[in-house]
């Protein structure tokens, strides 16, 4: 797909709304511009997935009515179960 964009007076280039929606780009997202040396450039998003994943996990936790204390109180038991599963794999 080839899309023409125009540079504005202050050097701003607008990413078309269709692409912003398709890839989930939001205001404030950071991109890397790589100069290829022949007058060509590659623009790639430099988006950390961690904040988005944390927000999704928080929404799921809230929707399920689970508190952070609930999660932390169950942690020792989950660790024990995982340890036992790993031990069985090596037997």
Question: How would you characterize the overall build of this protein?
Answer:
- The chain has 2 domains: 1-47, Pemi-like Protein 1, Chain: D, CATH 2.10.260; 49-89, no CATH class.
- The chain is mostly helical.
- The protein has helices at residues 17-23, 49-64, 68-73, 75-89; strands at 31-35, 41-45.
Give a short overview.
The protein has about 90 residues and is mainly alpha-helical. It has 4 helices and 2 strands.
Record the SSE blueprint:
Blueprint: H1 17-23, E1 31-35, E2 41-45, H2 49-64, H3 68-73, H4 75-89
Antiparallel strand pairs: 1-2
Q: Which geometry do the CA atoms define? A: elongated
The fraction of residues assigned to DSSP E strands is 5-15%
Helix content: 40-55%
Look at the structure and give the mean pLDDT. 89
Rounded radius of gyration (Å): 23 Å
- What's the number of extended β-strand segments? 2
The helix-and-strand class reads mainly alpha
Give the CATH class of the largest domain. Answer: Mainly Beta
Q: Record the strand order, biggest sheet.
A: 1-2
Major β-sheet profile = 2 strands, antiparallel
Q: Output the helix-strand order.
A: HEEHHH
Overall domain count: 2
N- to C-terminal distance? 54 Å
Q: What would you say the CATH architecture of the largest domain is?
A: Ribbon
CATH topology-level name of the largest domain: Pemi-like Protein 1, Chain: D
Low-confidence stretches: none
- Number of helical segments with 4 or more residues: 4
Sum up the structure in keywords.
4 helices, mainly alpha, 91 residues, 2 strands, 2 domains, 48% helix, Pemi-like Protein 1, Chain: D
């Amino acid at each position: 797909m080839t899309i023409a964009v125009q540079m504005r007076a202050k050097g701003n280039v607008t990413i078309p709304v269709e692409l912003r929606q398709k890839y989930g780009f939001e205001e404030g997202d950071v991109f890397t511009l790589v100069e290829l040396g022949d007058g060509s450039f590659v623009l790639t998003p430099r988006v950390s997935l961690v904040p988005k994943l944390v927000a999704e996990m928080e929404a799921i936790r809230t929707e399920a009515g689970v508190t952070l204390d609930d999660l932390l109180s169950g942690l020792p038991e989950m660790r024990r179960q995982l340890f036992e599963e790993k031990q069985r794999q090596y037997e």
